[in-house]
Amino acid sequence: MAHFRFMLAKYYPVPQVYMQAGYPNSVQRAAMIAHIALSVYIEDVKQLVAFGVRRAIKSVTPAILESMSPSDRQHHELRLTRLDQWLKVDNPLSHEKGVYATITSAICEHSLDIAQGLPAPDDNDTTQREFATALYGMTKPHHPHTLGAPLISRGGSIAVLQAAVELIHAYVPPALEGLQHEQWCIDVLLIAARGLQICYVPWSPPNPQGAGRRSSKVVWNYWKNVSKADRSPRPTLIDQIEHAFALGPSQRGKEAAFNAAMASSQSPWDVASIRLSELGHYLNRQVLPTEMKFSYANIAQQDTGYCSQTYRWVLAHFDFGKPLHQLALICGIVMSKVAPNVFYTTQDDPLHIPPTMTPDEVTSFIVDAPWITNTTRKGAKDGGPFVIMFTVLIISLLEPASPLYRQYVATGKRHGLGGAWTKKHSAKGITSFNLIRMGIANALTSKQVKGSLFHIDWEFKPTPVLHEYHQQLTELFRNGEHGAYDAVSLLVGCEMANTLVKRGELKRRSGVPILTNPTGIPLSNPLLPGLSSNRISQRKHQLKRSMSLAAYGDDPFALDEPRPSQRRRASALHTTRHDMDFM
DNA sequence: ACTCCGCCGGCGAATCTTCG
DNA sequence: CGAAGATTCGCCGGCGGAGT
């Protein structure tokens, strides 16, 4: 049915709204398809509301009616009428005359609530662009995000939007690739959303307790305003391109326009919608990604403990000018993509680090430890919280003024970071072990699996080393998708990077064998003394490891690579030692 | 030398949620 | 209703420091 309507769309006259904007034919046609799909979405919203309101009205028994105030009773009588009125409106999610008042009246249970508007908290407004981005993210053909708000579960619009997005792809100018390609589609959806005047949509409510799985189900009585003004109202990508055409059809102008559109440092962005291979495009942003919000840390709003204070402090003091802050954010983003493989030990296979090892050997050992999932540690599938949690851990321990650092100093260094902090973070693998594994910290003792204490058992690498690391990583990330692969290999090792290739987060050069020193740093002449040596030894023995695997016919890139046995760990350890002797 | 103590972090139960 | 995902909580062992 939807396909049939899309076919007709090719022949339908384009609505005046899209003509007036003066877009070229391809944009108009694509917007037309988006228009149809979003109309179906609006139908879903109507059904959801109609069903919800009717059931709410039905649930009011005569006894309850008796106990109501006269004004409430009067309002109750009117609700059904208001609902029917709203269902007949042309643009039911707009701020056109009376529409908002009608829907509010139908939805609110008590007459006094109507003045408050639709049930939606004040602070959750968003923009039409974010709305369009969310829709696109969930309906794109490759690696769509998990379905959630604002899509209505079991609504017809999901399939229609998927089909529409696929058709819209056909209209994208061939010169656009990757991110630009997606941006163009989002712009088309945005044009249609503006055409249909979608200003508020039903959303999924937050969990009342704050605990448990986050709700993804859209309900009729919780709404979100999507008509918030963009903080930096940049023109859409399409506008930019057309503007460049108007100036002169030179390729250069187009590119400049495109770069300007992409480089707007104030544009909002979110980690979930981008791939690691695209991260380089976002490193010049001066706004934090959506995931860097307090709500992603799963701490109660009213909490005033030092954990909560630390999160608020880092969010308030995040400084884009500080390389170490950006390094922390990069680590958080990469970890969010590594999740749930953030663990290093399980009950069956406890990790034991021999106490006879020197600190350098321990560091290498940890860097080489495989990234595994842990079935008994559940809350690690959703990458979202990792962005803020890792970033906050790193920044708060690098900044002596942070509440966590002050608490740590106040209680005496022997007392560590405190139970409240440790409990929350160790369950997600947000520990010093992973800071060492990502190459930003060093082990000082062999006590790394349990009871590892800051400044006693582990320590950040020296600031100059971290600055160089940051410089190297950002350069690699900016160097296209292959650079991104190299950067991620540096952070989490080649095996994990290959897993991320399987997940579609990264791309690997085709035809080039893995572990060919992708950074281009000559093995005999390490660029970063004290840092690269570990990584290089890792590569060297991973190369041996994967070669030996290949010799047995295993696929070294296998996603579900079995957990290496204790024996293999020991052999890895042996190789590392050998390398150390060798160097 | 021995015991006590406190921290980290792994495990599993309890509790909350969504969804078929 | 039951499966499954996410969080919190109590329990406990390993470790190493402090005190006797």
Describe this structure in words.
This protein has 583 residues and is mostly helical. The protein folds into 3 domains: 1-229, no CATH class; 233-268, no CATH class; 294-582, no CATH class. The chain has 22 helices and 4 strands. The protein has helices spanning 2-9, 16-20, 25-58, 62-67, 70-87, 99-107, 128-139, 157-169, 178-195, 237-247, 251-263, 306-317, 323-338, 359-368, 384-398, 403-410, 419-426, 432-437, 463-478, 480-502, 532-551, 566-582, and strands spanning 200-202, 223-225, 441-443, 458-460. Helix 3 packs across helix 9. The protein binds a DNA duplex (20 and 20 nucleotides) through helix 17.
Précis, in short:
This protein is mainly α and 583 residues long.
Instruction: Determine the mean pLDDT.
Output: 71
Structural class: mainly alpha
- The total of beta strands comes to 4
> In which order are the strands of the major sheet placed?
1-2
What percent strand? under 5%
What's the number of domains? 3
Task: Give unreliable regions as ranges.
Answer: 231-235, 243-263, 511-583
The helix/strand series, from N terminus to C terminus, equals: HHHHHHHHHEEHHHHHHHHHEEHHHH
Shape type: globular
- Helical content class: 40-55%
Q: Strand count, sense and closure of the main sheet?
A: 2 strands, antiparallel
How far apart are the termini?
A: 68 Å
CA-based gyration radius: 27 Å
Count of runs of 4 or more consecutive helical residues:
22
